[in-house]
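STRUCTURE REQUEST FORM
Protein name: Hydrogenase nickel incorporation protein HypB
Source organism: Syntrophus gentianae
Requested output: structure tokens
Priority: standard
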Amino acid sequence: MKVAVVKNVLDANERIAQDNRALFDRKKIYVINLMSSPGAGKTSLVEKTIMALKDRYRIAVIEGDIQDTQDADRISALGIPAVQINTGGACHIDGNMIREALPSLELDGIDLLISENVGNLVCPAEFKIGENAKVMILSTPEGADKPAKYPLMFQESAVMIVNKMDLMPYVDFDLEKAKRTALAINPKLQIFEVSCKNGQGLDGWFNWLSGQIEAFRTP
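Status: completed
Returned output:
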């Protein structure tokens, strides 16, 4: 019975996510679903991405948190439209939550929509929201064992961003092991080694994202 219930929930979400995707396609909005464990640097990466690309693309952000609005406030301070989703205890954003948030945005004025998911390495990977790409962040203090422990997250993502590279001299993180394990799970995974603190490697991420947006917008 529990298996059937879970399948029904996922099937219902899949239908809503497909509707969201159809809407985004009509509006020519490229959507990324940004995921990570708490504290890996999602909001910092969103801020850096906004600062790098806001002169080229119109950007909006949907912020998902169990409660509070601190992250949405940080994004709004950059002059970017931001909608806060408080999940009330749920460990992820799903397609219906995104659908409910969209009326708060002027969709005709958006080229790139970033959904910053709830901090979790399990649930967000299971629920589509209508995104073009799932992007996940693995921070160096978390350890290199995360791809092996949470394979679905790495399997479902198009990009793995290894953040906090500036801490490599101070943490026990086997970068090559993490990359090797992640690529064994998903050979197509794009990997960027970055530091949101000092800017290391961020240009590679910005260039990849810009390329995806341009390819999506090209008839």
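Reviewer notes: The CA atoms of residues 125 and 216 lie 23 Å apart. The chain has a mean pLDDT of 94.
Form closed.
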